[in-house]
Amino acid sequence: IMALILVIWISARWKLLELGRWLSSVVIVVLSVALAIGGCLVVDQDRTILRDHYDPPLSPYNYTSPLSGMRSYITNSKDDVLLTVENLPAGSSVRLAVMDRFDGNVWNLSDSTMSSDSSNYRRVGTSITNNAEGKKFTATFTVDKGLSDYWLPMAGAASSVTFDNSENSDSFYYNSDTMSAIYPSRTSEGLTYTETGIMPTIPTDKQIAKADAAAISQPKAEDVPDCVDKLATAIAGGQSKGGEAAQALTEKLKETGWFSHGLSGDYPSTAGHGNYRIDQLLAGTAMVGDSEQYASAMALMARSLGLPSRVVLGFLPKDDEGEISESRTEEQGKTTITKFIGNDVTAWVEIKLDSYGWVAFYPTPKETKVPDENQNLTPPNPQTLVRQPPVPLTDPLRDDTQAKGKSSIGGSMADETSDNLFWQHFGRIARKVAIYGSPLWTLLIICGLLLAIKAIALARSRKHGSTQQRVAAGWQSVAALARQSGLDIRGTRSEQAVSIANQMDISRETLLALGAQADYAAFSGNFVNEEHVQQYWRDIAQERKYMLKSLPTLRRWRAKLSLADVFHFRSNRSGRNNGSDRKHNRKKGRDS
Fold first, then answer.
1. What is the mean pLDDT of residues 402-417?
2. Residue of 16, 92, 265, 557 with fewest CB within 10 Å of its CB?
3. Contact 350, 361 (CB under 8 A)
4. In what order do the strands lie in the sheet with 81-86?
5. Mean pLDDT for the chain?
């Protein structure tokens, strides 16, 4: 619409509008509309639409952070059976989702531009490529009431997955890198499937301690609190092996932390695992939380030391203390049964080590380690810990590409700044709305267009036409600027020069000289060379600067943005200028 309005307006200003053109344009538009509508009415409306026959690739980034929903399982179904698994090796974990990207608020899956591991979900057939080494198993999973999610429970590394209802296999996507699955149709009560796979061999503590950290690319953790790096360096900064550093972080968190789900009757423990909650856990007044907070904290601490880390959400067959227990698996004849309840939903950390791949670490304190008001719940102070100088490494643990952000809060103030944090988020959002949604951009764009139109018109007048016409156009640009500045100027060029000089309080000599040169070019009949034209326009440009400089700021911008006389540079050379030239000739005749 704006383009049409501009075309009509410019055509009117240039006096190019003609009735015949209007009629032909209307006829063309009417015919086009008639053909378009008539064609749609004639063509059969039964079309083959590709999206009805083709499912687009799965985009796991559309799902919310799986870790954010962990506490809801414990709140709503703490003692209810959510998943029953037959013939699962005793003491085995069942994973739901794997997350390797921290954006300051939540852990989530990285997109394909950051890392291929956590985003590589694909629809698979009856067979899945599996290079894992360990114990083979075949387990049957049955989803019970209360487990309704996009993440399908899986154990170990799958070689094949078959559903009792073959139609359900169309909604199955598997990621071999993270050994996890997505089920876009959502799990529901009664969903049954059988997984055949390999349970990877778990290295011993001694093997882990001697293992180096693997070198992989991971997305940078954003807005990480300062306390994470300080505490991680104090605990494990002097360890020479990645596995040894991971073990040190795990033991320190389990030793100094306290456990609470924050449910009714529990010691207060805020939900969440973002930078505010982690700063509250590691540098606040009470180091209290559950696996959601401890897994997030350890993964960030490991990342600060250069260890490749990720957070896993799944089921663990736990005993009363929260430790993995093989006794949770019951034997019924030749079949074993493991029932997972809401309290078994847990988060843990995986660190990638050379020769062993992703190794699980469980930094959450025992669930029987419940705090009370008489105990010291303060997190360890990095300054009081024994800090060993870093050992020179052949394969350094630190990754310079994993830069650490700054927390929006700090230290012991973590428990006291919820209101400040709210206003900080509010202010950041308000600034973005003010910047990107402001009408100021529209005004600036319009002003830029006006300046561009004037610049094009001025350049066109300077370079098009004969040398006599271009000299006349130069003076006309001065007269146009005067009118755009609000001046009322009339008469011959010399009269205009005097009027401009008087009203703008500038020297009249230069203006009279420029007007006289324009008169000479118009009336002498002599040829004007190109060098003279170029010099004349340079003098015109300098004089226009003086004219603008003499105006107050508001009038100056008004003159710059005004389009008065802009489109008369060419037409007025044969119109208004010729009229003033004829008047000039008549005056010269009377004088003679």
1. 39
2. 265
3. yes
4. 157-163, 192-200, 134-143, 81-86, 335-341, 329-332
5. 82
State whether 154 and 281 are in the same domain.
Answer: yes
Q: How far, in Å, CA of 505 to CA of 306, rounded?
A: 71
> Is 460 in the same domain as 332?
no
Axis crossing angle, helix 530-549 with helix 508-523, rounded to the nearest 10: 150
Asked if 403 and 451 sit in the same domain, the reply is no
Q: What angle do CA 445, 446, 448 make, to 5 degrees?
A: 65
Q: Which domain holds residue 466?
A: 444-591
Q: Which amino acid makes up residue 58? A: L
Same domain for 298 and 162, yes or no, is yes
| Tokens encoding 4 | 């049409």
Let me know how many helices (H) and strands (E) the chain has, helices first. 17, 18
The model's pLDDT over 153-164, given as tens digits with 9 standing for 90+, comes to 999 999 999 998
Q: How far apart are CA 479 and CA 81, in angstroms?
A: 88
Q: State the Rg of the chain over Cα.
A: 39
241-273 residue pLDDT tens: 899 999 999 999 999 999 999 888 888 999 999
d(CA 360, CA 66): 18
In a shared domain, residues 193 and 341? yes
439 domain residue, yes or no: no
The band of 525, judged by pLDDT with boundaries at 50, 70 and 90, is confident
Q: In which residue are the tokens 């060419």 written?
A: 570
Name the residue among 118, 95, 121 with its Cα closest to residue 107: 118
Contact at 8 Å (CB) between 203 and 359? yes
Token pair belonging to 368: 């029987």
Residue 525, in any domain of the structure: yes
Q: Based on the domain organization, do 169 and 91 belong to the same domain?
A: yes
**177 plus 311 within the same structural domain:** yes
Instruction: Decide which of 392, 407, 422 is a domain's last residue.
Output: 407
Give the pair of three-digit tokens for residue 144.
């019970």
Conformational region of residue 15, where left means phi above 0, alpha means psi within -120 to 50, and beta covers everything else? left
Predicted TM-score of the model (pTM): 0.59
pLDDT at res. 581: 46
Task: Decide: 67 and 310 in contact? Cβ < 8 Å.
Answer: no
- Say how many domains are in the chain: 2
Among 347, 378, 407, give the residue marking a domain's end. Answer: 407
Task: For residue 67, give the amino acid letter.
Answer: L
The pLDDT of residue 558 is: 84
Residue 143 backbone phi and psi in degrees, to 5: -80, 130
Tell whether 448 and 398 lie within a shared domain: no
The structure tokens 């410019």 sit at 10
CB-neighbour burial class of residue 277 (10 A; exposed 0-12, middle 13-18, buried 19+): buried
Residue pair 543/511 in contact by the 8 Å Cβ criterion: yes
Q: Which two tokens stand for residue 345?
A: 């939903």
Cα separation, 196 vs 334, in Å, equals 17
CA–CA distance, 149 with 181 (Å, rounded to integer): 11
Name the residue with higher pLDDT: 370 or 567.
Answer: 370
Whether the Cβ atoms of residue 338 and residue 84 lie closer than 8 Å to each other: yes
Helix pair 242-256, 226-236: axis angle to 10 deg: 110
